[in-house]
Sequence to fold (135 residues):
Amino acid sequence: MSDAKHLPSYRRHKQSGQAIVALPDGCGRRRDVLLGKYGTLSSRMEYARVIGEWETSGRNPIRSVQSKALTVNELLVGYWRFAEGYYRKNGQPTKQLDRIKRSLSPVKALYDQTFANECVANQRHGSVYYQGRLN
Fold:
């Protein structure tokens, strides 16, 4: 099969259990896009939408993904990748990394596919508001 006709695979992200697709940009780099819970109809539909936008944009993942708002899960995955590299001492993960993992778990469970720009932290009350209601 020629590279021009190859479509990136719908696959399972092992750490999060989410569906993911890696969009190549033609320059040897790729952009991972989380699609929702692996195996669900909504994640398959999101895969079709992302691939369609990628194809329409000339297989440029940056243009096709920029139009989509970042989900809380995508934000958490990005932060986790940062934390894994930052919270190390002598090459070993510190205890802080475990604390971060435990603190991110309930956020992921509650707001996984919520768009990050729809959540506003209320620091005074320690609560999270989502579209005008207290959760």
